[in-house]
User: Which sequence fits this backbone?
């Protein structure tokens, strides 16, 4: 159950980050974020990319909410 709550919280945090950056995915922040997260190249599959993005969102949720 906690993983589900973490995932929902992570999706919220990702949406919040999108709003804060005005969804400018080619802007400075997102370029930096993609470089630091995937500096050695993108994951080999779209599924792995989505999993890593969700893992980041869950991590942000835990850091912001003391989990």
Assistant:
């Amino acid at each position: 159950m906690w993983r589900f709550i973490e995932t929902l919280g992570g999706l919220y945090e990702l949406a919040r980050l999108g709003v804060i950056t005005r969804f400018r995915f080619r802007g400075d922040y997102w370029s930096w974020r993609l470089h630091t997260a995937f500096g050695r190249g993108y994951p080999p599959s779209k599924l792995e990319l989505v999993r890593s993005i969700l893992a980041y969102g869950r991590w942000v949720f835990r850091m912001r909410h003391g989990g």
Observations:
- The mean pLDDT is 90.
- The CA atoms of residues 13 and 64 lie 9 Å apart.
- Helices lie at 2-20, 28-37, 46-64.
- The radius of gyration is 12 Å.
